[in-house]
Write a structure and sequence with these properties.
mainly alpha
Length: 74
Amino acid sequence: MEHLHAASWLGGIGFTMSLFIAALALNGAHEDMLAKIGILSASAAAAIIGSLLLCSCTKQPAQILKNQQDPHKT
């Protein structure tokens, strides 16, 4: 279940359609630039958070497997 949560964060990376819609919807150059900054910032945040969550998810099964192979080591 943790992998699904992490992968859903990675879904926020898809910003190309948002840039296209913002370009069509906004007339002013200033508003268009603010929209681009917001979209790219949100995309970068989603990529960073999703990557960190996936890295934390993949470390746990490796530790479980390691403990199952040699349960007497601490």
